[in-house]
Amino acid sequence: MQLRPPAAWIYASAIEIAGIIGEVIHMNSRVKLGPDQRRALLGGLLAASFFLIEAGVIEIILGLDQECRRAAGNLRLAPDPFTACMPEWQWLFLHSASRGFLWLINNSTPALLAGLIMGVVYAVVGAMSASLFKGRGLFIFLAVHLFLVAGIAGLGYLGRYIA
Fold first, then answer.
1. What pTM does this model have?
2. How far apart are CA 40 and CA 158, in angstroms?
């Protein structure tokens, strides 16, 4: 048995998962899916992967911003963290994009839990947009995604003054 580094293991796993999905989509397995079901499955998988990759990158950016805020807070005459690091509108937008609805309900929701729940929500939205708007499903999904992120960011901003 040959031991591989973690990166090679991740790539090998991704290739194996893609092969399994390809078998399901091309009907080489026992599961028989119609063309609309295949389109919905593919749209849901692409939407969930789009969101999870986006949320992961955003969490890295938010982690860097948190380090900047921590370093700015340790200064003797600490500046406002929204002027020294990331602006408030950008911080709100990134939080709403990575944690979704759960961020509005509870600010201390773990990123992993929020990412998994919102991944399922976006998978359903992607499957619906792929099956209902066949050729324009991608554009509809991206428009719905942008609308949801902007709406959640706006509600997060207003929630500071209401609560």
1. 0.71
2. 35
Residue 159 identity: G
The residue type of 135 is: G
For the stretch 107-163, pLDDT in tens is 788 888 888 888 898 899 999 898 888 888 888 888 988 888 888 888 878 877 775
Backbone phi and psi for residue 39, each to the nearest 5 degrees, phi listed first: -60, -45
Amino acid at 121: V
| Beta carbons of 113 and 102 less than 8 angstroms apart | yes
Residue with tokens 């991944």: 119
Assess contact for 120 and 48: CB atoms under 8 A: yes
Q: Given phi > 0 = left and psi -120 to 50 = alpha, else beta, which region is 75?
A: beta
